[in-house]
């Protein structure tokens, strides 16, 4: 007869595991000897090894008792079901591993390839990292809301970035993100922003792009992106007011102010 420690050693488990299986009703508790100690026989070793094997194979403890009592057909069906569940878990784990691996890639974790390529191009051209961060966060939100439309929208962004004159204007605006609302340079910056907007509009016209084919951005998304810009750029509200003086309104959905709008 074996003590609980000897039983655990035979089956390759811990004493704590044996007690856990007792508590779960998987392994019957034996009678105690005259000294009050549990004593186990060979059958207990066999049963414990079977329990351990099923548990190590990934069978939930709630199913172990059922499998121990199943006939051959029932056992085979149950094992097949467990195998399907394990395969599904493996696929999910692989998906998690893919996501974790993408963490090392930084921006590609939350952005589609077209947007990542755009941000990389901005870095190659020497844009400030602060400005790139604002662009990145904006595109994370856009990609989350309208993922299928990102490639189309990005085609316009890449076109603007590759335009030499427009790119230089954009680069000149790098200081915008750190300008205070009362900074005396702000009116001149607003002039440059207006020039950028005008240049961007001309780039679209010259490229023969069909703007009507571009997917519309919902008003709630426009408001969210505008609010993020306001939170990120101290001078944003003052800049918006100056741009209106120069004939432009909005930011994410910027448009020319027509005479009948005034």
Which SSEs are present, and which pair or pack?
Elements lengths: L3 H8 L3 H9 L18 H15 L4 H9 L2 H32 L9 H12 L4 H17 L4 H13 L1 H9 L13 H22 L11 H14 L3 H10 L2 E2 L5 E2 L6
Antiparallel strand pairs: 1-2
Helix pairs in contact: 1-3, 3-4, 6-7, 6-8, 7-11, 9-10, 10-12
Annotation keywords:
262 residues, mainly alpha, Multidrug-efflux Transporter Regulator, Chain: A, Domain 2, two-stranded antiparallel sheet, 12 helices, 2 strands, elongated
Can you offer a commentary on this structure?
65% of the residues lie in helices and 2% in strands. By secondary structure, the protein is mainly α. It folds into two domains: 4-103, Multidrug-efflux Transporter Regulator, Chain: A, Domain 2 (Orthogonal Bundle), CATH 1.10.1660; 110-261, no CATH class. Helix 6 (113-124) packs antiparallel against helix 7, helix 6 packs parallel to helix 8 (150-162) and helix 9 (164-172) runs antiparallel to helix 10. 13% of the residues are buried.
The share of residues in extended strands comes to under 5%
Instruction: Please give the oligomerization state of what you see.
Output: single chain
Contiguous runs where pLDDT drops below 50 for at least 5 residues: none
The structural domain count equals 2
Order of H and E elements: HHHHHHHHHHHHEE
Sketch the major β-sheet.
2 strands, antiparallel
Overall residue-averaged pLDDT value: 84
Number of strands: 2
Q: Helix proportion of residues, in percent?
A: 55-70%
Helices and strands: which structural class? mainly alpha
Secondary structure tally, helices? 12
How would the global form be characterised? elongated
The order of strands across the largest sheet is 1-2
Span between termini: 98 Å
Radius of gyration from CA coordinates: 33 Å
């Amino acid at each position: 007869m074996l003590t609980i420690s000897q039983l655990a050693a035979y089956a390759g488990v811990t004493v704590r595991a044996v007690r856990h299986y007792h508590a779960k009703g998987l392994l019957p508790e034996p009678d105690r000897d005259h000294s009050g100690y549990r004593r186990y026989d060979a059958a207990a070793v066999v049963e414990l090894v079977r329990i351990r094997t099923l548990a190590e194979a990934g069978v939930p403890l709630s199913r172990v008792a059922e499998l121990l009592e199943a006939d051959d057909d029932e056992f085979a069906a149950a094992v097949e079901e467990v195998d399907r569940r394990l395969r599904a878990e493996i696929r999910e784990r692989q998906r998690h591993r893919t996501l974790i691996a993408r963490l090392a890639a930084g921006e590609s974790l939350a952005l589609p390839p077209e947007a990542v390529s755009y941000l990389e191009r901005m870095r190659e051209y020497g844009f400030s990292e602060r400005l790139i961060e604002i662009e990145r966060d904006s595109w994370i939100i856009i990609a989350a809301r309208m993922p299928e439309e990102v490639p189309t929208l990005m085609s316009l962004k890449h076109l603007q970035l590759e335009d030499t004159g427009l790119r230089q204007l954009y680069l000149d605006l790098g200081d915008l993100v750190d300008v205070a609302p009362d900074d005396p340079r702000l009116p001149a910056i607003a002039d440059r922003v207006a020039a950028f907007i005008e240049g961007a509009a001309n780039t679209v016209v010259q490229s023969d792009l069909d703007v009507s084919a571009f997917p519309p951005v919902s008003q709630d998304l426009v408001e969210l992106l505008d609010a993020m810009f306001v939170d990120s750029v101290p001078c944003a509200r003052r800049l918006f007011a100056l741009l209106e003086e120069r004939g432009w309104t909005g930011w994410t959905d910027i448009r020319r102010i027509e005479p009948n709008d005034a």
